[in-house]
């Protein structure tokens, strides 16, 4: 059973524990009411609120040795926050941007892959959170769906599901599609590489199945 229950005023859309060894009792949640809320598991109490987004918060990703985190939102922006400081130190928003429902950090920590609702994956360098315009991954259809994207453990490939049930694998260096295959009947919503058997990937879909591929 659970050890402690915390009560949120609105529905949480994402949650992340602070990865820092000294802050294992803290987690933050992205909420439907546009806020990011910090909690202490020792007390069950709210310890910080980050209230700058203009739409529901979809993802939270820790970067820069866990001293900062990036959030994305239905307001089509990215914001960078320092831990426990409720004012964002960087705000990225552009009329050409779309909502980002899924993000993935590379194993090296240098790159943040952002699944965009205009059917592409954009790449940001985590240092100063700058868009890498040379790295754009296309070909899949994800508009309207929060399909997960992920890096391979060695950062050589990028993987994503799509709305048509396909799984796409791109070559990181060339950004070209390395392989695509039909994985599920319906949306392929999630995918990940096995961390130790790196020739294998696992996918899940709206057909209710979880599949292991070699």
Précis, in short:
With 214 residues, the chain is mainly beta. It is 0% helix and 50% strand. It has a four-stranded antiparallel sheet, with no helix packed on it. A four-stranded antiparallel sheet has the order 5-6-7-8, with no helix packed on it.
Beta-strand share of residues: over 45%
Largest sheet properties: 4 strands, antiparallel
How far is it from the N-terminal to the C-terminal residue, by CA?
Answer: 36 Å
H and E string = EEEEEEEEEEEEEEEEEEE
- In the sheet with the most strands, the strands line up as 1-2-3-4
- Low-confidence sequence ranges: none
Mean pLDDT: 95
Proportion of residues in helical segments: under 10%
Q: Write down the overall geometry.
A: globular
- The rounded Rg comes to 17 Å
